[in-house]
Design a protein that fits this description.
Strand content: 15-25%
Number of domains: 2
Number of helices: 6
CATH topology of the largest domain: N-terminal domain of MutM-like DNA repair proteins
Strand order of the largest sheet: 5-7-6-1-2-3-4-8
CATH class of the largest domain: Alpha Beta
CATH architecture of the largest domain: Alpha-Beta Barrel
CATH superfamily of the largest domain: MutM-like, N-terminal
Order of helices and strands: HEHEEEEEEEHHHHEE
Shape: elongated
Structural class: alpha+beta
Number of strands: 10
Distance between the termini: 29 Å
Length: 279
């Protein structure tokens, strides 16, 4: 599933190509996504709207549309789901299989939203109501923000028996730290993934906080992680997977101490750790 670094890679890839451009039309080919697409509303509200800016909240891509007459500022909200992709097509290019929404952009260009597993989302939300929207109102802090601190984690983890890895992946506390990045963070911080979050000391939270910011920043710099089918808007794969220390390396030697990396399932997700480095 695309996580924060992958969505941020998409945002940056589209930013210079989409900001200031006009949406001239929309073709909804399939409405049956995880949340049904309101095709009639998109056809009514999108044509003639200019893109003001591109943002991101958690794993949601936020395309801010300028106010236009009686139409107030609104966000075109896109979620890539499990395997979605959004990209500009070449002139005359046949849409890929599983292309569900096509946006016609000024300059005779098309922006395609493709989602084979249909877990994605395409919706329109008034800008003034975004924070009240049920998909955003309960989200935690952005991990790369100043608000995300060791003190923040420490205070919110007290008395919790929940494994620290699950805590890091809980979007109600911090957003976008997916399975891969949580495993890598805890390895580099030297914290066992099954340790109860409430038993993690402030000093350990200081290490975790610093490392998670470093890991996510480097993942963004590398264009995200491509293990199966993630691609950026220009069709290129991410390269962070070549830097993975423990994730997906169960049975291999730890790069630090040569112990054998172990794999364990926590809450249905594969977790990788070094039993020596992460006691």
């Amino acid at each position: 599933m695309p996580e924060l670094p992958e969505v941020e890679t998409v945002r940056r890839g589209l930013q210079g190509l989409l900001e200031g451009e006009l949406i001239e039309g929309v073709d909804v080919r399939e409405t049956r996504l995880r949340y049904p697409v309101d095709a009639r509303r998109l056809r009514r509200e999108l044509p003639g709207r200019r893109v003001k800016s591109l943002g991101r909240r958690a794993k949601y891509l936020l395309i801010l549309l300028e106010e236009d007459g009686s139409r107030e500022e609104a966000f075109l909200v896109i979620h890539l789901g499990m395997s979605g992709r959004i990209y500009f097509s070449e002139p005359g290019e046949t849409p890929q299989l599983h292309t569900h929404v096509i946006f016609s952009i000024s300059g005779d260009r098309e922006l395609h939203f493709c989602d084979p597993r249909r877990f994605g989302l395409v919706d329109l939300v008034p800008a003034a109501l975004l924070e009240e929207d049920k998909r955003f109102s309960s989200l935690g802090v952005e991990p790369l923000s100043d608000e995300c601190s060791a003190e923040y984690f420490f205070e919110r983890s007290r008395k919790l028996r929940q494994p620290v890895k699950n805590f890091l992946m809980d979007g109600r506390r911090v957003v976008g730290v997916g399975n891969i990045y949580a495993s890598e963070t805890l390895f580099l911080a030297g914290v066992h993934p099954q340790r109860a979050a409430g038993r993690v000391s402030l000093k350990s939270w200081e290490r975790i906080t610093a490392v998670v910011k470093e890991v996510l920043t480097e993942a963004i710099r590398q264009g995200g992680t491509t293990l199966k089918d993630f691609q950026g808007p220009d069709g290129t794969a991410g390269y962070f997977q070549v830097l993975l220390r423990v994730y997906g390396r169960g049975g291999e030697e730890c790069p630090e101490c040569s112990s054998i990396i172990r794999r364990k399932v926590l809450s249905g997700r594969s977790t990788f750790y070094c039993p020596r480095c992460q006691r």
